[in-house]
Amino acid sequence: MRVFFAVLNGLLVAAYPVAVYVGLTRFSARGLGLLLALLLLPGFVSKLRRARREDLLTVARLPLSILVLLALAALLNDARFMLALPVLINLALLVQFASSLAGTPMVERFARMQQPELPSAHVPYCRGVTKVWCGFFACNGLLSGLLAVFAPLSWWTLYNGLVAYLLIGLLATVEYVIRKFRFRDYGKGLHDRVLARLFPPHTGALP
Protein backbone atom coordinates (compact mmCIF):
# COMPACT_ATOMS: atom_id res chain seq x y z
CA MET A 1 0.00 0.00 0.00
CA ARG A 2 2.86 2.40 0.72
CA VAL A 3 4.26 1.85 -2.78
CA PHE A 4 0.78 2.26 -4.26
CA PHE A 5 0.19 5.57 -2.49
CA ALA A 6 3.67 6.81 -3.40
CA VAL A 7 3.12 5.99 -7.08
CA LEU A 8 -0.40 7.47 -7.01
CA ASN A 9 0.80 10.70 -5.43
CA GLY A 10 3.66 10.96 -7.91
CA LEU A 11 1.30 10.50 -10.85
CA LEU A 12 -1.20 13.00 -9.45
CA VAL A 13 1.44 15.66 -8.87
CA ALA A 14 3.00 15.13 -12.32
CA ALA A 15 -0.40 15.17 -14.03
CA TYR A 16 -1.82 17.94 -11.84
CA PRO A 17 -1.82 20.73 -14.49
CA VAL A 18 -3.56 18.52 -17.06
CA ALA A 19 -6.00 17.25 -14.43
CA VAL A 20 -6.86 20.84 -13.49
CA TYR A 21 -7.36 21.83 -17.12
CA VAL A 22 -9.59 18.85 -17.89
CA GLY A 23 -11.43 19.13 -14.59
CA LEU A 24 -12.20 22.83 -14.86
CA THR A 25 -13.64 22.35 -18.34
CA ARG A 26 -16.08 19.79 -16.94
CA PHE A 27 -16.60 20.57 -13.26
CA SER A 28 -16.71 23.57 -10.99
CA ALA A 29 -13.67 24.59 -8.95
CA ARG A 30 -15.53 23.33 -5.88
CA GLY A 31 -16.10 19.86 -7.27
CA LEU A 32 -12.59 19.52 -8.66
CA GLY A 33 -10.99 20.78 -5.45
CA LEU A 34 -12.86 18.19 -3.40
CA LEU A 35 -12.02 15.41 -5.85
CA LEU A 36 -8.29 16.20 -5.90
CA ALA A 37 -8.18 16.53 -2.11
CA LEU A 38 -9.81 13.11 -1.70
CA LEU A 39 -7.35 11.55 -4.16
CA LEU A 40 -4.29 13.08 -2.50
CA LEU A 41 -5.33 12.66 1.13
CA PRO A 42 -4.60 8.88 1.55
CA GLY A 43 -1.05 9.27 0.22
CA PHE A 44 -0.41 12.26 2.45
CA VAL A 45 -1.67 10.40 5.52
CA SER A 46 0.52 7.42 4.67
CA LYS A 47 3.53 9.72 4.30
CA LEU A 48 2.90 11.35 7.67
CA ARG A 49 2.51 7.98 9.39
CA ARG A 50 5.94 6.89 8.11
CA ALA A 51 7.67 10.08 9.23
CA ARG A 52 9.72 10.21 12.41
CA ARG A 53 8.28 12.31 15.19
CA GLU A 54 11.08 14.88 14.99
CA ASP A 55 10.55 15.23 11.22
CA LEU A 56 6.76 15.38 11.35
CA LEU A 57 6.44 19.17 11.03
CA THR A 58 8.83 19.33 8.08
CA VAL A 59 7.16 16.41 6.29
CA ALA A 60 3.65 17.77 6.94
CA ARG A 61 4.28 21.35 5.81
CA LEU A 62 3.90 20.90 2.04
CA PRO A 63 1.07 18.29 2.05
CA LEU A 64 -0.97 20.42 4.45
CA SER A 65 -0.35 23.53 2.34
CA ILE A 66 -1.59 21.69 -0.76
CA LEU A 67 -4.71 20.48 1.06
CA VAL A 68 -5.37 24.03 2.31
CA LEU A 69 -5.21 25.37 -1.25
CA LEU A 70 -7.59 22.69 -2.49
CA ALA A 71 -9.91 23.30 0.47
CA LEU A 72 -9.99 27.03 -0.25
CA ALA A 73 -10.69 26.34 -3.93
CA ALA A 74 -13.61 24.11 -2.93
CA LEU A 75 -14.91 26.40 -0.18
CA LEU A 76 -14.79 29.60 -2.25
CA ASN A 77 -15.38 27.89 -5.62
CA ASP A 78 -12.33 29.75 -6.92
CA ALA A 79 -9.96 28.00 -9.36
CA ARG A 80 -7.14 30.47 -8.69
CA PHE A 81 -6.19 28.60 -5.54
CA MET A 82 -5.61 25.43 -7.58
CA LEU A 83 -3.52 27.35 -10.10
CA ALA A 84 -1.30 28.53 -7.25
CA LEU A 85 -0.08 25.01 -6.44
CA PRO A 86 2.99 25.05 -8.76
CA VAL A 87 4.00 28.36 -7.17
CA LEU A 88 3.73 26.77 -3.73
CA ILE A 89 5.82 23.76 -4.75
CA ASN A 90 8.55 25.93 -6.28
CA LEU A 91 8.54 28.15 -3.21
CA ALA A 92 8.92 25.12 -0.95
CA LEU A 93 11.83 23.81 -3.03
CA LEU A 94 13.43 27.26 -3.10
CA VAL A 95 13.25 27.53 0.70
CA GLN A 96 14.62 24.00 1.12
CA PHE A 97 17.57 24.52 -1.23
CA ALA A 98 18.32 28.08 -0.07
CA SER A 99 18.21 27.20 3.63
CA SER A 100 20.67 24.35 3.02
CA LEU A 101 23.29 26.90 1.97
CA ALA A 102 23.69 27.82 5.63
CA GLY A 103 25.12 24.34 6.21
CA THR A 104 25.57 21.46 3.79
CA PRO A 105 24.13 22.47 0.41
CA MET A 106 21.33 20.28 -0.92
CA VAL A 107 23.24 19.18 -4.03
CA GLU A 108 26.18 18.12 -1.86
CA ARG A 109 23.82 15.98 0.22
CA PHE A 110 22.60 14.26 -2.93
CA ALA A 111 26.18 13.80 -4.15
CA ARG A 112 27.25 12.20 -0.88
CA MET A 113 24.43 9.67 -1.16
CA GLN A 114 26.22 8.36 -4.26
CA GLN A 115 29.78 9.12 -3.14
CA PRO A 116 30.16 9.40 0.66
CA GLU A 117 33.85 10.33 0.39
CA LEU A 118 33.21 13.31 -1.86
CA PRO A 119 36.45 14.92 -3.15
CA SER A 120 37.06 18.35 -1.67
CA ALA A 121 37.09 19.95 -5.14
CA HIS A 122 33.45 18.94 -5.59
CA VAL A 123 32.22 20.77 -2.47
CA PRO A 124 32.29 24.37 -3.82
CA TYR A 125 30.89 23.10 -7.12
CA CYS A 126 27.91 21.55 -5.30
CA ARG A 127 27.29 24.85 -3.52
CA GLY A 128 27.29 26.68 -6.83
CA VAL A 129 24.86 24.19 -8.40
CA THR A 130 22.57 24.55 -5.38
CA LYS A 131 22.48 28.31 -6.01
CA VAL A 132 21.63 27.68 -9.68
CA TRP A 133 18.67 25.51 -8.66
CA CYS A 134 17.55 28.23 -6.24
CA GLY A 135 17.49 30.66 -9.16
CA PHE A 136 15.57 28.19 -11.28
CA PHE A 137 12.89 27.57 -8.64
CA ALA A 138 12.49 31.32 -8.10
CA CYS A 139 12.08 32.03 -11.82
CA ASN A 140 9.90 28.98 -12.41
CA GLY A 141 7.57 29.87 -9.55
CA LEU A 142 7.35 33.51 -10.64
CA LEU A 143 6.51 32.60 -14.23
CA SER A 144 3.95 30.04 -13.12
CA GLY A 145 2.30 32.65 -10.92
CA LEU A 146 2.19 35.22 -13.73
CA LEU A 147 0.62 32.67 -16.06
CA ALA A 148 -1.97 31.78 -13.42
CA VAL A 149 -3.00 35.42 -13.03
CA PHE A 150 -2.68 36.88 -16.53
CA ALA A 151 -2.67 34.04 -19.09
CA PRO A 152 -5.36 31.68 -20.38
CA LEU A 153 -5.72 28.36 -18.58
CA SER A 154 -4.32 26.53 -21.62
CA TRP A 155 -1.03 28.48 -21.39
CA TRP A 156 -0.73 27.74 -17.68
CA THR A 157 -1.36 24.05 -18.38
CA LEU A 158 1.16 23.86 -21.21
CA TYR A 159 3.90 25.48 -19.16
CA ASN A 160 3.36 23.62 -15.89
CA GLY A 161 2.42 20.32 -17.50
CA LEU A 162 5.19 20.15 -20.10
CA VAL A 163 7.56 23.10 -20.50
CA ALA A 164 8.58 23.25 -16.83
CA TYR A 165 9.48 19.53 -16.84
CA LEU A 166 11.49 19.97 -20.05
CA LEU A 167 13.37 22.87 -18.47
CA ILE A 168 14.14 20.80 -15.39
CA GLY A 169 15.44 17.97 -17.58
CA LEU A 170 17.48 20.40 -19.67
CA LEU A 171 19.05 22.04 -16.62
CA ALA A 172 19.88 18.66 -15.07
CA THR A 173 21.42 17.44 -18.34
CA VAL A 174 23.51 20.57 -18.86
CA GLU A 175 24.74 20.42 -15.26
CA TYR A 176 25.68 16.75 -15.68
CA VAL A 177 27.70 17.45 -18.84
CA ILE A 178 29.44 20.43 -17.21
CA ARG A 179 30.28 18.32 -14.16
CA LYS A 180 31.79 15.56 -16.29
CA PHE A 181 33.73 18.09 -18.37
CA ARG A 182 35.12 19.74 -15.25
CA PHE A 183 36.03 16.70 -13.13
CA ARG A 184 36.36 13.94 -15.77
CA ASP A 185 35.03 11.42 -13.23
CA TYR A 186 33.19 8.74 -15.21
CA GLY A 187 31.16 5.68 -14.39
CA LYS A 188 30.47 2.60 -16.50
CA GLY A 189 27.17 3.71 -18.05
CA LEU A 190 26.82 4.27 -21.78
CA HIS A 191 26.29 8.02 -21.35
CA ASP A 192 29.48 8.28 -19.27
CA ARG A 193 31.44 6.32 -21.86
CA VAL A 194 30.22 8.65 -24.60
CA LEU A 195 31.21 11.71 -22.55
CA ALA A 196 34.57 10.11 -21.78
CA ARG A 197 35.22 9.95 -25.52
CA LEU A 198 34.27 13.61 -25.92
CA PHE A 199 36.14 14.77 -22.80
CA PRO A 200 38.93 12.24 -22.11
CA PRO A 201 39.89 11.72 -18.45
CA HIS A 202 42.83 13.77 -17.26
CA THR A 203 44.81 10.55 -16.76
CA GLY A 204 44.42 9.78 -20.44
CA ALA A 205 42.74 6.40 -19.75
CA LEU A 206 39.13 5.77 -20.67
CA PRO A 207 36.97 4.01 -18.11
Please give the structural blueprint.
Layout: H1 2-14, H2 16-24, H3 29-50, H4 56-76, H5 80-83, H6 85-100, H7 106-114, H8 122-150, H9 153-183, H10 190-198
Helix pairs in contact: 1-3, 2-9, 3-4, 4-6, 6-8, 7-8, 8-9
Describe this structure in words.
This protein has 207 residues and is an all-alpha fold. It has two domains: 1-79, no CATH class; 84-207, no CATH class. Helix content is 79%, strand content 0%. The chain has ten helices and no strands. The chain has helices at residues 2-14, 16-24, 29-50, 56-76, 80-83, 85-100, 106-114, 122-150, 153-183, 190-198. The model has no long low-confidence stretch (mean pLDDT 84).
Core attributes:
207 residues; mainly alpha
What's the structural domain tally? Answer: 2
- Which parts are unreliable, with pLDDT below 50 for 5 consecutive residues or more? none
What overall form do the CA principal axes indicate? globular
Q: Please trace the helix and strand order, writing H or E for each element.
A: HHHHHHHHHH
What is Rg?
20 Å
- Cα-to-Cα separation, first versus last residue: 41 Å
Mean pLDDT: 84
The helix count comes to: 10
Q: Per DSSP, what share of the residues sits in E-state strands of 2 or more residues?
A: under 5%
Structural class determined from secondary elements: mainly alpha
**Count of strand segments:** 0
The major sheet is characterized as: none
State the helical fraction: over 70%
